[in-house]
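Work Package 3 (structural annotation) set out to generate three-dimensional models for the target panel prioritized at the project kickoff. During this period the team completed the workflow that converts sequence records into discrete structure tokens, so that structures can be stored uniformly alongside our sequence database. As a representative example, we reproduce one entry of 371 residues exactly as it appears in the project archive.
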Amino acid sequence: MPSSSSVHGSYNMGSSKILRQLISLSEDFEEYSLESDNSDMIDQVISRKHLRKLLSALQARDAATLCHSRRVAFLAKGIATNLGWEGIHLKRLEVAALLHDIGKIGVPDHIIFKPGKLTSEEIELMSHYHNIGLDVLQACRTDHEVLTILSQTRYHFSGATNGYQFIGSEVNQGARILAIADAYDSLATDQVYRTGKKHEEIMSILMEAAGTQFDGNIVCALSRWEQNEKQAFHDALLEVNRLFQPKDFTEREAQEANLISNIFSYLFQIESLYDGFYIVNADFQFVILSPGLEKLADLRAIDILGESWTSTSLPLTNKEGTNLTSAECSMNRVIANGKPMTTEFMLERPGGRLINIEVQSVPMFGDDGRL
């Protein structure tokens, strides 16, 4: 019987080595966190090692995007400061802004360097890669607040782009700030198909979208900041550009950037083929819970990441609609025999409705051949 949806525990696309390296990002974080200085706020949000690798890979892919991200981080941090943000909350927003376009690492050349506006299909593909970026950041054990900001930064203030699940102030405030900072810099920057706009014109565009796409209070906060500081505001933006220098990559840095790019490519294939997926490590802890699976199973990744997998982690039942026993759980059977398997289950949706799904569980093996 054809299933209406498919969920996969993991998937081997011909090179399990890439997926093992993805899992190693999570393991690297645990080792790094034991050595890091707890007073370093960045390390409380994401390990500096991972942040450096990701930003270096983004620069290798498209230096202009990294420079844009740095300007957006400056703008977001400035807006938030004017709204009274400080400390770790400010650092989380700054990191989210630096990483908001990290998905572009995997975007094909013909889209990322396209000399014109993107089509609706290309915009949808960009959104796909945004989700892949979230997958990678999950594996990096990035602070949950950063993940929330990035998952909601494309939500319109009116709720029109998220099925009206989050309306107005229900949208994370950091996401609302980041959306405005991103839009401001995009409008101010020269594009192939248009020149950058002046501050007054940008603010007019943002104000026009206040209450629908953007939070009007945050647009006003940006306006007040610029009015209060005037030249200092614009000089600081220019300084971000001046300090951004071209980078000569060492052989090791180039290899690291290539590895991260390969991870994005594999995750794109998985995201494209299946409605949702999750990955657990050798300790049965959730490393990734894809946005697709969040939506399909009505789960929140931030509630599950790092938690131990059990047969009840997902709202799955057998064909009779009763909870799975340990013996019925495909993951346990895969662990026992070391072979991939596909099983049909029922997935409980909100309201108690059951849908038929196909679950494929695939083991990953180390270089020594062990599970």
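Residues 5-14+275-361 form a domain with the Beta-Lactamase fold (CATH 3.30.450).
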